[in-house]
Amino acid sequence: MDTRRAWWIWGTGVFAYLVAITQRTSFGVAGLHATERFDATAAALSTFTVVQLLVYAGLQIPVGLMVDRFGPRFMITGGAVLMCAGQVQLAFASSIPEGLAGRLLVGAGDAMTFVSVLRLLPIWFSGKRIPLLTQLTGQFGQLGQLLSVIPFVALLNLQGWQTAFLSVAALSVLSVILAASVIRNFPSGVEQDLPPTLRQTGVSLAQAWKQPGTQLGLWSHFTVQFAGNVFILTWGFPFLVSGQGLEPAAASALMTVFVAVALCSGPFFGRWVARHPLRRSSLVLLIIAATAAVWLAVLLYPGRAPFWLLVVLVLVLAVGGPGSMIAFDFARTFNPVSRAGTATGIVNVGGFVSALLVMFCVGVALDALYASGYSQGELYSLDSFRIALSVQFLFLGGGTAAILFIRRRVRANMAAQGQNVPPLRVALARQRRLRKQRRDRRRDASAGRH
Ligand SMILES: N[C@@H](Cc1c[nH]cn1)C(=O)NCC(=O)O
Fold first, then answer.
1. What percent of the chain has pLDDT over 90?
2. Which sequence ranges are marked TM in the entry (predicted)?
3. Angle at 400 between CA 324 and CA 269, to 5 degrees
């Protein structure tokens, strides 16, 4: 493999994903300006985010199939073209339908990027590096949020709506140029398979879906990703400020801690997964258990939770993002490279569907509690949040049951191929025994020298 070239190609893919995250998050930070520009209510504004996320989630499987058919270069370049067109449309939009059309294009272009970048990894890198590179792709991409929060917001305040959105559109022009000129679907000299026919594409989708490893990835992504997304994108800030009575500055500081912890913990997960590929689902279950435990502690705490407990909550929720990337490792390792895009697309639907559903259910519950008089005239009261946020336990519990059920099928398939996964207890006891043997040998050798 041409190593230097592989790094350039991966770097360009990561840049395209980082720009996609900037486009994805740019509207969220422009909420006040959007309210004024479109003369919109809060509900109308929330449709922008919902439309964008629905388009993103709905396109994951078609996009996965297309990546396997047309290759990552075409998809990453095409995605950047769509996002550029969407942001230009938004820059000039003066009504809600015109604005929605722009966000729809952004959602579609965004949907084409991440799956295509991950599809580059098994082509250009050896298997051992891939878990860490998968994590780094996810975490570097998240830095795109910072571009939205700092320079984009500054441009918006100083130069206005059009200049700010045209500037982020220009970032996508850069992505188009870089992706088209740097990214290659295959190393030179590697014989390329003929693109699959429509019938083969259908067969590939059915095979990727039927593979229990893909379903394990889908349910892992579904269960691990949503809690962090719901917290950082929607209900976290009102819960901390109105529910828990924190100053907005303290809540913002916790949100910053969230982003930093998510960034730093990614490489740890990547290395751990590369070293213990048979224990990936145990790590997923551990993250789910920690999420449920910390929410239980915060929501059951009599009165407002102490600050240290809120810090623990943020730390645990922050690892959900990198933790959810383990799901893509299931997709990659249980499917051949030729359908890796399709399997990744299937897995990526999980976390976005659960996040959308939970965000929606929490909103509906808060509104219902307000309308019933339970929250005593305060939409975001702590008691209402206790009930509304508890909906997460249904998703955590249901997702865990699905993971345990499918894991049994995955392990049965592996056993049929001669690869037995010993129970964690047995594996840990063996590890302890080996460590003790190594220590004894070292002690005997040093005793022999004296
Ligand atoms: N799990 C996320 C990525 C992530 C990494 N850290 C926090 N979030 C994911 O599924 N990403 C897909 C995408 O298109 O962003």
1. 63
2. 7-23, 43-67, 74-92, 164-183, 216-237, 249-270, 282-301, 307-328, 340-365, 385-406
3. 30
Shared domain for 49 and 173, answered yes or no, is yes
Confidence tier at 3 by pLDDT (50, 70, 90) = confident
Q: Whose CA is nearest to atom 15 of ligand 1?
A: 114
pLDDT at 1 over 90: no
Joined together, the tokens standing for residue 67 give 């990546």
pLDDT digits (tens, 9 = 90+) for 30-52: 877 888 899 877 677 778 888 88
304 in the same domain as 441: no
CB of 109 closer than 6 angstroms to any ligand 1 atom: no
303 and 445 assigned to the same domain: no
The two tokens of residue 224 are 């691990």
Percent pLDDT > 70 in the chain is 98
Any atom of ligand 1 within 6 Å of the Cβ of 258: no
Residue 220's H or E segment, with its range, is helix 212-230
Residue 341 in contact with ligand 1 by CB distance below 6 A = no
Model confidence band, residue 194 (pLDDT cutoffs 50, 70, 90):
low
Q: Using a CB cutoff of 8 Å and minimum separation of 24, what contacts does 375-380 make?
A: 378/242, 380/238, 380/239, 380/242, 380/243
Q: Of how many residues is the chain composed?
A: 450
According to the model, what pLDDT value does residue 200 have? 83
User: Are 430 and 371 in the same domain?
Assistant: no
Q: Is the pLDDT of residue 191 over 70?
A: no
Query: Domain total for the chain?
Result: 2
Mean pLDDT of 413-430: 81
**What is the residue with the minimal CA distance to atom 10 of ligand 1?**
348
Name the token pair of 39.
Answer: 């003369």
pTM of the model: 0.88
Same domain? For 413 and 437 the reply is no
Q: Is the dihedral of CA 350, 352, 355, 359 positive or negative?
A: negative
* Residue 427 alpha carbon to ligand 1 centre in Å: 31
Shared-domain flag, residues 401 and 450: no
Residue 195 lies in a domain: no
Q: Is the CB of 138 under 6 A from ligand 1?
A: yes
Q: Which residues constitute the domain of residue 407?
A: 4-185+205-419
Non-local CB neighbours of 277 within 8 Å, separated by 6+ positions: 329, 333
